Amino acid sequence: MLIILILSGLEIFSNLITMLINSGIRILIKDFRFNKKITEIIKVIFVIAFMLSVIFLLVQFVKVMALWFGISLDKSILDIFR
User: Fold this and answer.
1) Alpha-carbon gap, residue 72 to 82, rounded angstroms
2) List of residues 6+ apart from 62 with CB closer than 8 A
3) How many of the other CB atoms lie within 10 Å of CB of 72?
4) What is the pLDDT of residue 82?
């Protein structure tokens, strides 16, 4: 999940994956360019992956902190507020 977070962060902030895919296809097909719509779709997919990995890692962080502080999370993660 950490790898997904890093890769999606690279794509969101620097378009690294899109440039790699684009240059790989350019080797096979000369004068190839992605449409603006396709690059936006790729960016949205990576934003969703980024958000899901952040949420997953935050939940895991809460579980570890609850374990360290001796808070029982038997029923749900919302037990932390009791």
Assistant:
1) 10
2) 77, 80
3) 10
4) 61
Tokens linked to 53: 């990995």
Of 40-44, 58-62, 76-80, the poorest mean pLDDT is in 76-80
pLDDT digits (tens, 9 = 90+) for 16-54: 888 888 888 888 888 888 888 988 998 999 999 999 999
Q: What is the DSSP-derived secondary structure letter of residue 75?
A: S
Tokens of 64: 């570890």
Tokens of 63: 């579980």
CA 42 to chain centroid, in Å, comes to 12
Distances (CA, A) of 46 to 21, 30, 49, 60, 63: 14, 26, 5, 21, 26
